[in-house]
Amino acid sequence: MSVRPIRLFGDPVLRSPSDPVRVGDARLASLVDDLLDTVREPGRAGVAAPQIGVGLRAFSYNVDGEVGYVLNPEITELTGEKELVEEGCLSVPGFWFPTPRWSRARVEGIDLDGEPVVLEGDGLMAQALQHETDHLAGTLYVMTLETETRRDALRQIRASDWWRA
């Protein structure tokens, strides 16, 4: 169990679709512990496995005091209005951009025992569910931005100190 370092935009693991997890894999409990420890750091709403260098379909969340995880999550419902919300990402540190997100989301997956997990919510929870599920598809939020915003975002990111390092 440990807080794992976050991979940054440009790392190939962040651009690759994640593989489904297999219940019973002995390493899975350790991955979940690391995801939970990592998301408990202040200011974090979610951490997807690729962000800690693991290409598996798993993420943890920390929204409104509720901390948990889901394995093999799939978005099963997006409702309400699609709106632009200010969004950031641990893998793109220091930047926030207006990102199109549905106002309500529902994700279904499993836990370590293979039991069903259903997460749903609006506001920050809906945003986190969409954001983390995107990570598992190999999509960073900056790639979902409207065209002009995306161009400006990528220009700003490429000029950042961490990008040039």
Write a structural description.
35% of the residues are buried. The model has no long low-confidence stretch (mean pLDDT 95). The protein is α+β, with helices and mostly antiparallel strands and 165 residues long. Strands 1-2-3-4-5 form a five-stranded antiparallel sheet. It is built from four helices and five strands. The two termini are 28 Å apart.
Can I get a quick summary?
The chain is an alpha+beta fold. 25% of the residues lie in helices and 36% in strands. Strand 3 and strand 4 (92-110) form a beta hairpin.
Properties at a glance:
single chain, 165 residues, alpha+beta, 5-stranded antiparallel β-sheet, 4 helices, 25% helix
Overall, the morphology is globular
> What does the average pLDDT come to?
95
Sheet bearing the most strands, described? 5 strands, antiparallel
Report the helical percentage: 10-25%
Continuous helix count: 4
* Uncertain stretches of 5 or more adjacent residues: none
What is the strand arrangement across the widest sheet?
A: 1-2-3-4-5
Roughly how many Å is the radius of gyration? 15 Å
Going by helix content, strand content and strand pairing, the class is: alpha+beta
Strand-and-helix sequence, N→C?
HEEEEEHHH
Q: Approximately how much beta-strand content do the residues carry?
A: 35-45%
Distance between the termini: 28 Å
Number of strands: 5
